[in-house]
What we know:
Radius of gyration: 16 Å
Number of domains: 1
Structural class: alpha+beta
CATH architecture: 3-Layer(aba) Sandwich
Strand content: 25-35%
Amino acid sequence: MPKSASKNSFEATAAHAAGSTTRRIDVQLLDRAHLASMQRLLATPDVCRALYGGMLSEAQLQAVAHMHLRAATQGAGQAWVLSEAGEPGAVLGYLGIFRDQLVYAIRPELRRRGWASLLLRHGCQACAAPEGVRVLNASVLGENAASARLLEANGFRFAGHGHALPPGANGGVVRTLEYTLSVPPSRNAMVKAGPRWDPEHCRA
Length: 204
């Protein structure tokens, strides 16, 4: 990512009416100010189980949050967060792309309101690097039907079943649903080829 890019350089704002209140939520590039709140998001039980097959230790969560930040700031990938407008440190959702692998999470209270789709759209628009990223991959652990529906609604195609050894599964093998999305080349792409996402790096 160019050094001149800021956390607001890839921003979109939307409003969600909830009763008599309106929430404004921004999509921002991940930076160091988001780390603590991102770690709390990943520690949410259903988020952690969906991403890692079980609960991780605090040290593991800290390690993976820093790994995402390093990848996003050192040109090995890209990462975005959803945050409340005016509260950039409060992470409500997250999406990371590392070479050709997509990882995302969103707080339970914001699900089924279009915010995860907003993150996916922005990520997919930015990931088509001239260096050769042409297919974006996503894995769904277990039978996470909601996540599978989200991917399918945003253009991903089911590619078959697989298996993973997520760090939260204590060495157990977890069945996965594999999805792919064809990515057209873009001269404005921000994600360059780099290290592939490897859950083993979260182990601490």
